[in-house]
Design brief:
This protein has about 120 residues and is an all-alpha fold. Helices cover about 55% and strands about 0% of the residues.
């Protein structure tokens, strides 16, 4: 059976970061993937402003222009990719890109301890 990843349409660097997260639990790799997911969902006019770098301090609604439908799409994407459940209460506590990254990390587990 062939499983289709939600990241198939993303650049190879993002798919590789996801693979690094899965194999090494590298939190920097996870941050790369989460930021790419947010950038993927940006409206075109906002995406152009952040073509080089999406600041983690960016507020999802106020700065990036996401409405509740797009936020739901991002959450569904993350839930599907990492096989986690994110409640509405959880979502209410996520305001910035950094909040989302930290929440995903806390939800799917910390980095593996070094040997």
């Amino acid at each position: 059976m062939c499983t289709v990843s939600p990241l198939n349409s993303f650049p190879s660097a993002i798919r590789e970061a996801h693979a690094r997260w899965l194999s090494d639990r590298d939190p920097h790799a996870l941050a790369t993937v989460v930021i790419a997911i947010v950038a993927f969902h940006l409206p075109p006019n906002i995406r152009a402003q952040y073509s080089e770098n999406l600041p983690e301090t960016s507020r999802l609604v106020e700065d990036l222009g996401f409405d509740s439908l797009v936020l739901a799409e991002i959450i569904f994407f993350i839930e599907d990719l990492y096989q986690v459940s994110i409640s509405n209460d959880d979502l209410r506590r996520i305001h910035t890109v950094a909040d989302l990254r930290a929440f995903v990390l806390s939800k799917i587990g910390p980095a593996r301890p070094s040997a």
